[in-house]
Amino acid sequence: xxxxxxxxxxxxxxxxxxxxxxxxxxxxxxxxxxxxxxxxxxxxxxxxxxxxxxxxxxxxxxxxxxxxxxxxxxxxxxxxxxxxxxxxxxxxxxxxxxxxxxxxxxxxxxxxxxxxxxxxxxxxxxxxxxxxxxxxxxxxxxxxxxxxxxxxxxxxxxxxxxxxxxxxxxxxxxxxxxxxxxxxxxxxxxxxxxxxxxxxxxxxxxxxxxxxxxxxxxxxxxxxxxxxxxxxxxxxxxxxxxxxxxxxxxxxxxxxxxxxxxxxxxxxxxxxxxxxxxxxxxxxxxxxxxxxxxxxxxxxxxxxxxxxxxxxxxxxxxxxxxxxxxxxxxxxxxxxxxxxxxxxxxxxxxxxxxxxxxxxxxxxxxxxxxxxxxxxxxxxxxxxxxxxxxxxxxxxxxxxxxxxxxxxxxxxxxxxxxxxxxxxxxxxxxxxxxxxxxxxxxxxxxxxxxxxxxxxxxxxxxxxxxxxxxxxxxxxxxxxxxxxxxxxxxxxxxxxxxxxxxxxxxxxxxxxxxxxxxxxxxxxxxxxxxxxxxxxxxxxxxxxxxxxxxxxxxxxxxxxxxxxxxxxxxxxxxxxxxxxxxxxxxxxxxxxxxxxxxxxxxxxxxxxxxxxxxxxxxxxxxxxxxxxxxxxxxxxxxxxxxxxxxxxxxxx
Length: 652
Prior knowledge:
single chain; 652 residues; alpha/beta; globular; catalytic activity; Radical SAM family uncharacterized protein; CHP03960_rSAM; rSAM_horseshoe; Elp3/MiaA/NifB-like_rSAM
């Protein structure tokens, strides 16, 4: 039995901020008998509890694994620096929140990355757990560390620190890994850690960096990445869970004890996106589109709310209004929960009037959250470059519809630093914001309307058409944002109604280093971490200077520097660090789309038009799966706050 470290941890908690986040015992948490399990997983989202607990990916895997009778899964999150200091002083190791067991005692330590800025927190957790930082130094006594999530589609910067990485959907992958570990342990762990990793690698869908060598050219570019053993595949493929209706998770969502960033029952209504926005890694790597049926969504919402007691339902996906049954889904759920305190929400939506109809349905219970639209680019020209097709007229019309229907607050999201961008492209954001306020005032006859302009820095990501693009320097981005702020406030009467929120260019540049880095960047991550880097995704903890200094100390030995990874444009024939990791997308197609972007050519959505040969469907033997199924959530028994009732779906 792996003993609980709770007796050593508890006396430290009164000395730290938000001690409740380390206590565990949430509704939905599972604690199983250590000795009854044959395979034991520690699952981590490498950020604070308040960000990590709501993470959908970790919650789904936690539930999928714990449903197996001989498997146990517990959660761990990044500890804040105040507790880290105390843990080091008192010899308390990295622990799980479920049963406060030391992470080092588990068989598999799975870490889900949705951003590269979580890499330093991974090192803290490994070190606090008492596991050697470098995968090469680990023994059979250490867990196998497996990275997953969107930021694991290029795991090369952390190749020194993780034993393996899984590309793509996790539901079936964790079951396959569990089966391999179970069998290897049952045989008496033959061949030790190396044999286990080899068995994982042979699946062709688990990437084990130690079995691949990277050769470099004299100018610093990669010459090739090749397996160093005969029985390891040249390319590793992503996992795709095709039938989402067969995986209706989470059924028992975790209900947090401490305040978290999202407190709602989130149901993913479809996976994948085919709109083809060229900056969007999530849309590219999650192809093809796979919809959940309206009946499964209805059941999940009913069960999730009954179990959790949440009052808000989030209908999540990369573009929720694109679900083929979204209208019926929203009106059905709105009917279902009319007169209750349950509210429905969609994440940021596309700019079209249809979404206002949806928003009307969603706010029937009286709660009007702000509407968020993401035009992404300020000018028509730059929107063609990034393939985000929305005209200024569409945007104004949509926002005016929102204002006339009673909304008072609209948020517009843009990016700065996009390929080919000029000052003029960014300044058009001010014109757009001014027009939004003018049109809103004239349509409503009221001055009481607001719009917030929110700006993020563009980061080129692997497996997208922009993976070859040069980044803009932080001072250029900061200069453009200063000009934009002046332009917004140039008209005092309009400027007063416009909020302006932005991220400066520095964190984006570092995210760019990590997103397109190769194995040499691992030394930079380690140096930053040794110099105190923690929680780099939090502006109050992030230090640009620390990263610049570490890059300057480490990279010249390899003949490269920070600019080489960030502000340099790649050419067509360069071997990219992730070329041996197959997201299903054809590299030639991505290159052609990059050329199309430079000539401002727009690509349609292949969900409704013929195939463009991106490569995903044939290479993975899959296809786009969309409805409509022709079913409704009806007949419904409306609810008056007492119990929730949804009829069982008719059998297929």
